[in-house]
Amino acid sequence: MAESEEEVDVLVQRVVKDIINAFKRNPNIDEIGVIPCPEARYNRSPIVLVENKLGVESWCVKFLLPYVHNKLLLYRQRKHWLDREALVDITCTLLLLNPDFTTAWNVRKELLQSGVLNPEKDLYLGKLALTKFPKSPETWIHRRWVLQQILRQFSAEGQTSKQQQQQGETEQADAERSQQLGDHLARTLHQEMKVCCDAACLYPSNYNAWSHRIWVLQHMAMGNVKVFHDELSSMRLWVSMHVSDHSGFHYRQFLLKELITELSQPLSSATNSPQHNSSTVPSSSPSHHSQAQANGELSGVEAAGEEERQPSFTTIIQLFCQEIELCSDLIHSFPGHETLWSHRRHVFYLWHHWRREYQHYSSNGGSELVHLNDSDPGLQTVGAQSCAGRGESVNGQGHATEAMEVDGASFPELRDSKRLKTGILLPDPPALSSEYSFVSSILDDCCNPEQRRFALAYEKWLDTVIGHQP
């Protein structure tokens, strides 16, 4: 065991060099860890590389960490000079052992801005640090900073591409460059999603990882419905395996809100369209519009708007129904988990407010968006409010919701195998009465005291919050 200061310096310098050489030998290292080993055994390096796993024997950490820490502090205090290569090696070693040392990340920011470091390499270093310290806040903060640099680079390259096109460059070359930038951004987004998922699996309720995941979507995929929908679908399995992790369900709530916001834009834009705002256009009058619909004679603009809004309306209802169904399955399969009931409460509250807003839109001139198949008997138009409340007595109390009507006709029962023109069978939308029925079924078959307590609390919430709202 090294004892003198000179021997410690020689030992630590050799360990730092061994770590850097390990990365050079295997650039695909995907995990780091500390190997319990109280004493140095044999005359060999304490750095162990097996396949893609890098391990550091614990006996040398007590020498290694103070050494690189002091070296970096002396450099920042301008008491000791280190060249750029030495700075890269020292900060890499230090952050693998202690990723919450802000000074080291700041030094790497300076190196990255000066062009010494590649942004992808810094993302790779952060990814490795998170395999050992998945909740490290400084690592997530630095990761967002690096991603911002990458996004600025994409933006600058896009501006350069436009300028070159204006100077006479062929459109084909510009399209290829844009495609490459898009593919690079998509790969970066996919890698970030994987890093966040791995960190969330390593540390329960890892809010730092989930917050970073939300930030990535907000800055790299905002408005991309497909990305958000794919995320929502891929998260079903994860939350089913982590039913007590509220952070994962909070992420699903974020995805659901963003999807509803994006899909509702074509619906609400109808009230701002010229057909609804200008009285100088003949087709904007309600009588003309209704007559044209009855005769199947919508104008080209109106028909395009109807085609755009109808799938959005259908998708929104399906999203809510699928989320409520997922909650029901998990509550039945895993009784006594408060997280599941909290998530159901949030989803139904979101549905309740979206339905009220959509009702307000329809009552102020929104067109009828969803139509049943012409071949169905008893053909009638299904209005925008697809969720008519049904009164039902629960525990001797009447819980009635307002019937939502369009042109005097309530929304028909969707369970009657009525298909839309798009060929999609709409499920039965959520309703207050169905929620009371669900709670009653849980209470009737409940053997878990925690499950019963959560069910009663949810029923009370329905009474006090939803039942008293207009």
Describe this structure in words.
Strand 2 (47-50) and strand 3 (53-57) form a beta hairpin. By secondary structure, the chain is mainly α. It is 63% helix and 6% strand. Residues 273-306 and 365-422 have low confidence and may be disordered. Residues 158-180, 267-307 are annotated as: Disordered.
Strand order of the main beta sheet, please?
1-3-2
| Mean model confidence by pLDDT | 79
Which band does the percent of strand residues land in? 5-15%
Low-confidence stretches: 273-306, 365-422
Distance between the first and last residues' Cα:
76 Å
Radius of gyration using CA atoms only: 30 Å
Helicity, in percent?
55-70%
Order of helices and strands: HEEEHHHHHHHHHHHHHEEEEEEHH
Strands, count? 9
What is the number of helices?
Answer: 16
Descriptive tags:
470 residues; mainly alpha; 3-stranded mixed β-sheet; 9 strands; prenyltransferase; Prenyl_trans_a; transferase; protein prenyltransferase activity; Protein prenyltransferase alpha subunit repeat containing 1
